[in-house]
From TrEMBL:
Entry similarity comment: Belongs to the binding-protein-dependent transport system permease family.
Organism whose genome encodes this protein: Nocardia pseudobrasiliensis
Annotated InterPro entries: BPD_transp_1_N (IPR045621), MetI-like (IPR000515), MetI-like_sf (IPR035906)
GO BP term, pick one: transmembrane transport
GO (cellular component) term, any one: plasma membrane
Principal location listed in the UniProt entry: membrane
Pfam family, one: BPD_transp_1
Protein name (database record): Peptide/nickel transport system permease protein
Length: 326
Protein backbone atom coordinates (compact mmCIF):
# COMPACT_ATOMS: atom_id res chain seq x y z
CA UNK A 1 0.00 0.00 0.00
CA UNK A 2 2.77 2.45 0.92
CA UNK A 3 4.63 1.80 -2.34
CA UNK A 4 1.42 2.28 -4.30
CA UNK A 5 0.61 5.57 -2.57
CA UNK A 6 4.17 6.81 -3.12
CA UNK A 7 4.01 6.04 -6.85
CA UNK A 8 0.57 7.59 -7.26
CA UNK A 9 1.46 10.74 -5.30
CA UNK A 10 4.70 11.23 -7.24
CA UNK A 11 2.83 10.64 -10.49
CA UNK A 12 0.17 13.12 -9.43
CA UNK A 13 2.80 15.75 -8.62
CA UNK A 14 4.36 15.29 -12.06
CA UNK A 15 0.96 15.74 -13.68
CA UNK A 16 0.30 18.89 -11.68
CA UNK A 17 3.74 20.21 -12.61
CA UNK A 18 3.03 19.69 -16.30
CA UNK A 19 -0.42 21.29 -16.00
CA UNK A 20 0.99 24.27 -14.10
CA UNK A 21 3.68 24.81 -16.75
CA UNK A 22 1.19 24.55 -19.62
CA UNK A 23 -1.29 26.84 -17.86
CA UNK A 24 1.40 29.39 -17.01
CA UNK A 25 2.58 29.51 -20.61
CA UNK A 26 -0.99 29.79 -21.88
CA UNK A 27 -1.99 32.61 -19.54
CA UNK A 28 1.24 34.56 -19.12
CA UNK A 29 3.33 33.96 -22.21
CA UNK A 30 0.89 33.33 -25.08
CA UNK A 31 0.84 36.10 -27.69
CA UNK A 32 -1.75 38.77 -26.89
CA UNK A 33 -1.67 38.18 -23.13
CA UNK A 34 -0.04 41.44 -21.98
CA UNK A 35 0.05 40.72 -18.25
CA UNK A 36 1.32 44.16 -17.31
CA UNK A 37 -1.46 45.87 -19.26
CA UNK A 38 -4.14 43.65 -17.68
CA UNK A 39 -2.75 44.28 -14.19
CA UNK A 40 -2.36 48.02 -14.81
CA UNK A 41 -6.01 48.59 -15.70
CA UNK A 42 -7.86 50.31 -18.52
CA UNK A 43 -6.18 53.71 -18.11
CA UNK A 44 -2.46 53.04 -18.12
CA UNK A 45 0.40 55.01 -19.65
CA UNK A 46 3.38 53.23 -21.25
CA UNK A 47 5.58 54.35 -18.36
CA UNK A 48 3.19 53.00 -15.74
CA UNK A 49 2.79 49.77 -17.68
CA UNK A 50 6.56 49.31 -17.74
CA UNK A 51 6.70 49.93 -13.99
CA UNK A 52 3.95 47.36 -13.37
CA UNK A 53 5.75 44.83 -15.59
CA UNK A 54 8.93 45.28 -13.55
CA UNK A 55 6.99 45.05 -10.26
CA UNK A 56 5.31 41.80 -11.31
CA UNK A 57 8.53 40.42 -12.77
CA UNK A 58 6.97 39.76 -16.18
CA UNK A 59 9.86 41.58 -17.88
CA UNK A 60 12.06 38.58 -17.04
CA UNK A 61 12.60 35.49 -19.26
CA UNK A 62 9.56 33.16 -19.21
CA UNK A 63 11.42 30.28 -17.58
CA UNK A 64 12.55 32.54 -14.73
CA UNK A 65 8.97 33.79 -14.27
CA UNK A 66 7.68 30.21 -14.05
CA UNK A 67 10.38 29.09 -11.61
CA UNK A 68 9.60 32.05 -9.36
CA UNK A 69 5.88 31.25 -9.56
CA UNK A 70 6.54 27.60 -8.74
CA UNK A 71 8.92 28.46 -5.92
CA UNK A 72 6.34 30.84 -4.45
CA UNK A 73 3.94 27.93 -3.95
CA UNK A 74 6.43 26.22 -1.64
CA UNK A 75 8.46 29.05 -0.11
CA UNK A 76 6.57 32.26 -0.86
CA UNK A 77 7.88 35.15 -2.93
CA UNK A 78 8.08 38.92 -3.12
CA UNK A 79 5.78 40.67 -5.60
CA UNK A 80 6.73 44.33 -5.79
CA UNK A 81 6.78 45.73 -2.28
CA UNK A 82 4.63 42.92 -0.89
CA UNK A 83 5.73 39.54 0.41
CA UNK A 84 3.33 36.76 -0.53
CA UNK A 85 3.67 33.87 1.98
CA UNK A 86 3.61 30.24 0.89
CA UNK A 87 1.62 28.84 -0.71
CA UNK A 88 1.69 31.96 -2.91
CA UNK A 89 -0.54 31.97 -5.99
CA UNK A 90 -0.06 35.66 -6.67
CA UNK A 91 -2.30 38.67 -6.21
CA UNK A 92 -5.61 39.22 -7.94
CA UNK A 93 -5.60 41.91 -10.63
CA UNK A 94 -9.19 42.73 -9.69
CA UNK A 95 -9.25 43.12 -5.90
CA UNK A 96 -5.46 43.10 -5.25
CA UNK A 97 -5.86 40.44 -2.55
CA UNK A 98 -3.81 37.24 -2.34
CA UNK A 99 -5.38 34.72 -4.71
CA UNK A 100 -5.28 31.97 -2.10
CA UNK A 101 -7.31 34.07 0.36
CA UNK A 102 -9.87 34.81 -2.36
CA UNK A 103 -10.26 31.11 -3.17
CA UNK A 104 -10.46 30.08 0.49
CA UNK A 105 -13.26 32.62 1.02
CA UNK A 106 -15.24 30.98 -1.81
CA UNK A 107 -14.36 27.34 -1.15
CA UNK A 108 -16.87 26.71 1.69
CA UNK A 109 -19.74 27.58 -0.67
CA UNK A 110 -18.49 25.14 -3.31
CA UNK A 111 -17.84 22.40 -0.75
CA UNK A 112 -21.33 22.85 0.70
CA UNK A 113 -22.84 22.63 -2.78
CA UNK A 114 -20.78 19.51 -3.50
CA UNK A 115 -21.58 17.67 -0.26
CA UNK A 116 -25.34 18.19 -0.44
CA UNK A 117 -25.64 17.36 -4.13
CA UNK A 118 -23.50 14.22 -3.83
CA UNK A 119 -25.53 12.86 -0.91
CA UNK A 120 -28.83 13.40 -2.73
CA UNK A 121 -27.87 12.08 -6.14
CA UNK A 122 -26.10 9.05 -4.65
CA UNK A 123 -29.07 8.04 -2.53
CA UNK A 124 -31.61 8.67 -5.29
CA UNK A 125 -29.56 7.49 -8.27
CA UNK A 126 -28.06 4.34 -6.76
CA UNK A 127 -31.34 3.50 -5.02
CA UNK A 128 -33.34 3.74 -8.25
CA UNK A 129 -30.69 1.78 -10.14
CA UNK A 130 -30.76 -1.07 -7.62
CA UNK A 131 -34.55 -1.12 -7.63
CA UNK A 132 -34.62 -1.25 -11.43
CA UNK A 133 -32.07 -4.07 -11.53
CA UNK A 134 -33.86 -6.16 -8.91
CA UNK A 135 -37.23 -5.62 -10.63
CA UNK A 136 -35.92 -5.92 -14.16
CA UNK A 137 -38.69 -5.59 -16.74
CA UNK A 138 -41.30 -4.47 -14.20
CA UNK A 139 -43.16 -1.18 -13.93
CA UNK A 140 -40.67 -0.04 -11.30
CA UNK A 141 -37.83 -0.69 -13.73
CA UNK A 142 -39.52 1.24 -16.54
CA UNK A 143 -40.39 4.13 -14.21
CA UNK A 144 -36.85 4.39 -12.86
CA UNK A 145 -35.34 4.33 -16.33
CA UNK A 146 -37.94 6.84 -17.51
CA UNK A 147 -36.75 9.21 -14.80
CA UNK A 148 -33.16 8.53 -15.88
CA UNK A 149 -33.92 9.44 -19.48
CA UNK A 150 -35.79 12.64 -18.58
CA UNK A 151 -33.31 13.69 -15.89
CA UNK A 152 -30.27 12.97 -18.04
CA UNK A 153 -31.65 15.16 -20.81
CA UNK A 154 -31.78 18.22 -18.54
CA UNK A 155 -29.18 20.97 -18.36
CA UNK A 156 -28.40 23.18 -15.37
CA UNK A 157 -28.96 26.39 -17.33
CA UNK A 158 -32.49 25.16 -18.20
CA UNK A 159 -33.52 23.29 -15.06
CA UNK A 160 -32.06 25.90 -12.69
CA UNK A 161 -34.11 28.88 -13.93
CA UNK A 162 -37.19 26.65 -14.13
CA UNK A 163 -36.84 25.65 -10.46
CA UNK A 164 -36.27 29.28 -9.48
CA UNK A 165 -39.39 30.38 -11.36
CA UNK A 166 -41.53 27.54 -10.00
CA UNK A 167 -40.54 27.57 -6.33
CA UNK A 168 -39.22 31.09 -5.74
CA UNK A 169 -40.73 33.69 -8.05
CA UNK A 170 -44.08 32.07 -8.89
CA UNK A 171 -45.32 30.09 -5.88
CA UNK A 172 -42.95 31.77 -3.36
CA UNK A 173 -42.65 28.44 -1.54
CA UNK A 174 -38.93 28.98 -1.13
CA UNK A 175 -36.61 31.96 -0.83
CA UNK A 176 -33.85 32.89 -3.24
CA UNK A 177 -30.90 30.51 -2.68
CA UNK A 178 -28.27 32.01 -0.41
CA UNK A 179 -25.26 30.68 1.44
CA UNK A 180 -25.12 30.58 5.24
CA UNK A 181 -22.27 28.90 7.06
CA UNK A 182 -23.21 25.48 8.41
CA UNK A 183 -21.63 26.39 11.73
CA UNK A 184 -23.75 29.53 12.03
CA UNK A 185 -27.13 27.97 11.25
CA UNK A 186 -27.36 24.38 9.87
CA UNK A 187 -31.05 24.68 8.95
CA UNK A 188 -30.57 27.93 7.06
CA UNK A 189 -27.49 26.42 5.41
CA UNK A 190 -29.52 23.49 4.07
CA UNK A 191 -32.55 25.60 3.15
CA UNK A 192 -30.50 28.13 1.23
CA UNK A 193 -28.82 25.45 -0.88
CA UNK A 194 -31.73 23.06 -1.37
CA UNK A 195 -32.68 24.21 -4.87
CA UNK A 196 -29.10 24.04 -6.24
CA UNK A 197 -28.75 20.61 -4.65
CA UNK A 198 -31.95 19.39 -6.29
CA UNK A 199 -30.93 20.86 -9.64
CA UNK A 200 -27.59 19.04 -9.63
CA UNK A 201 -29.06 15.88 -8.10
CA UNK A 202 -31.79 15.45 -10.73
CA UNK A 203 -29.25 15.53 -13.54
CA UNK A 204 -26.56 13.44 -11.86
CA UNK A 205 -28.94 10.90 -10.29
CA UNK A 206 -30.14 9.99 -13.78
CA UNK A 207 -26.64 8.88 -14.80
CA UNK A 208 -26.08 6.99 -11.56
CA UNK A 209 -29.41 5.21 -11.90
CA UNK A 210 -28.56 3.94 -15.39
CA UNK A 211 -25.02 3.01 -14.42
CA UNK A 212 -26.11 1.19 -11.26
CA UNK A 213 -28.81 -0.75 -13.08
CA UNK A 214 -26.52 -1.89 -15.89
CA UNK A 215 -23.73 -2.83 -13.46
CA UNK A 216 -26.10 -4.72 -11.16
CA UNK A 217 -27.72 -6.62 -14.05
CA UNK A 218 -24.28 -7.62 -15.32
CA UNK A 219 -23.01 -8.72 -11.90
CA UNK A 220 -26.19 -10.67 -11.12
CA UNK A 221 -25.54 -12.80 -14.20
CA UNK A 222 -22.02 -13.74 -13.06
CA UNK A 223 -21.21 -17.34 -12.15
CA UNK A 224 -20.17 -16.57 -8.58
CA UNK A 225 -23.59 -15.02 -7.88
CA UNK A 226 -25.28 -18.21 -9.05
CA UNK A 227 -22.90 -20.20 -6.84
CA UNK A 228 -23.75 -18.08 -3.81
CA UNK A 229 -27.46 -18.52 -4.49
CA UNK A 230 -27.00 -22.28 -4.88
CA UNK A 231 -25.45 -22.40 -1.41
CA UNK A 232 -28.72 -21.08 0.00
CA UNK A 233 -27.72 -17.52 0.86
CA UNK A 234 -30.70 -15.17 1.22
CA UNK A 235 -31.58 -12.72 -1.53
CA UNK A 236 -30.79 -9.67 0.62
CA UNK A 237 -27.25 -10.88 1.30
CA UNK A 238 -26.74 -11.79 -2.35
CA UNK A 239 -27.83 -8.36 -3.56
CA UNK A 240 -26.11 -6.20 -0.95
CA UNK A 241 -23.04 -8.16 0.12
CA UNK A 242 -22.03 -9.61 -3.25
CA UNK A 243 -23.84 -8.07 -6.23
CA UNK A 244 -23.81 -4.45 -5.13
CA UNK A 245 -20.20 -4.67 -4.01
CA UNK A 246 -19.21 -5.97 -7.41
CA UNK A 247 -21.22 -3.25 -9.16
CA UNK A 248 -19.64 -0.41 -7.18
CA UNK A 249 -16.42 -0.17 -9.20
CA UNK A 250 -17.77 1.96 -12.09
CA UNK A 251 -19.88 3.95 -9.60
CA UNK A 252 -16.79 4.80 -7.55
CA UNK A 253 -14.95 5.89 -10.69
CA UNK A 254 -17.71 8.24 -11.79
CA UNK A 255 -18.27 9.54 -8.26
CA UNK A 256 -14.61 10.44 -7.80
CA UNK A 257 -14.54 12.46 -11.00
CA UNK A 258 -17.87 14.14 -10.24
CA UNK A 259 -16.71 15.25 -6.81
CA UNK A 260 -13.46 16.57 -8.27
CA UNK A 261 -15.31 18.53 -10.94
CA UNK A 262 -17.72 20.03 -8.40
CA UNK A 263 -14.88 21.04 -6.08
CA UNK A 264 -13.08 22.57 -9.03
CA UNK A 265 -16.11 24.77 -9.49
CA UNK A 266 -19.69 24.16 -10.59
CA UNK A 267 -19.52 27.24 -12.80
CA UNK A 268 -22.96 27.09 -14.39
CA UNK A 269 -24.78 26.10 -11.20
CA UNK A 270 -23.18 28.80 -9.08
CA UNK A 271 -23.80 31.39 -11.79
CA UNK A 272 -27.47 30.44 -12.27
CA UNK A 273 -28.19 30.51 -8.52
CA UNK A 274 -25.82 33.42 -7.84
CA UNK A 275 -23.79 31.51 -5.27
CA UNK A 276 -20.40 33.07 -4.41
CA UNK A 277 -18.36 29.89 -4.86
CA UNK A 278 -15.23 28.93 -6.77
CA UNK A 279 -17.20 28.40 -9.98
CA UNK A 280 -18.60 31.93 -9.93
CA UNK A 281 -15.13 33.21 -9.08
CA UNK A 282 -13.76 31.44 -12.16
CA UNK A 283 -16.45 32.97 -14.38
CA UNK A 284 -15.80 36.44 -12.96
CA UNK A 285 -12.04 36.07 -13.38
CA UNK A 286 -12.52 35.34 -17.08
CA UNK A 287 -14.67 38.46 -17.48
CA UNK A 288 -12.11 40.57 -15.57
CA UNK A 289 -9.09 38.95 -17.31
CA UNK A 290 -7.78 38.15 -13.83
CA UNK A 291 -4.99 35.78 -14.87
CA UNK A 292 -3.67 34.82 -11.39
CA UNK A 293 -7.15 33.77 -10.26
CA UNK A 294 -7.84 31.89 -13.49
CA UNK A 295 -4.60 29.91 -13.16
CA UNK A 296 -5.21 29.17 -9.47
CA UNK A 297 -8.69 27.80 -10.21
CA UNK A 298 -7.26 25.56 -12.96
CA UNK A 299 -4.65 24.23 -10.53
CA UNK A 300 -7.31 23.65 -7.86
CA UNK A 301 -9.48 21.70 -10.29
CA UNK A 302 -6.48 19.69 -11.51
CA UNK A 303 -5.41 18.87 -7.95
CA UNK A 304 -8.95 17.78 -7.12
CA UNK A 305 -8.99 15.38 -10.09
CA UNK A 306 -5.56 13.95 -9.21
CA UNK A 307 -6.52 13.39 -5.57
CA UNK A 308 -9.87 11.89 -6.59
CA UNK A 309 -8.17 9.36 -8.87
CA UNK A 310 -5.78 8.29 -6.10
CA UNK A 311 -8.66 7.85 -3.65
CA UNK A 312 -10.70 5.89 -6.20
CA UNK A 313 -7.77 3.52 -6.81
CA UNK A 314 -7.52 2.88 -3.07
CA UNK A 315 -11.27 2.32 -2.79
CA UNK A 316 -11.05 -0.28 -5.57
CA UNK A 317 -8.95 -2.53 -3.31
CA UNK A 318 -11.68 -2.54 -0.65
CA UNK A 319 -14.53 -2.98 -3.11
CA UNK A 320 -13.06 -5.70 -5.30
CA UNK A 321 -10.89 -8.38 -3.61
CA UNK A 322 -9.33 -9.14 -7.00
CA UNK A 323 -7.63 -5.74 -6.99
CA UNK A 324 -4.32 -5.61 -5.17
CA UNK A 325 -2.23 -2.53 -4.51
CA UNK A 326 1.38 -3.50 -4.95
Amino acid sequence: MLAFLTRRILGGLVILLIISAATFMLFYIAPGNNVARLACGKVCSPELQAAVAHQLGVDKPWWQQYLEYLGGIFTGRSIGDNHCPAPCLGYSFHNHRPVLDTILDRLPVTLSLTIGAVVIFLVVGVGLGMLAALRKGSAADRSAMGFAVVGGAQQVFVLGPFLLFLFVYSSRIMKVPTYTSFFDNPLRWAGGLLLPWVCLAVISAAYYARLTRSSMVEVLSEDYIRTVRAKGMGSANVYVKHAFRGAMTPIATLLGLDIAVLIGGAIITETVFNLPGVGQLAANSVQDSDLPVMMAVVLLASAAVVVANIVVDIVYAFIDPRVRLG
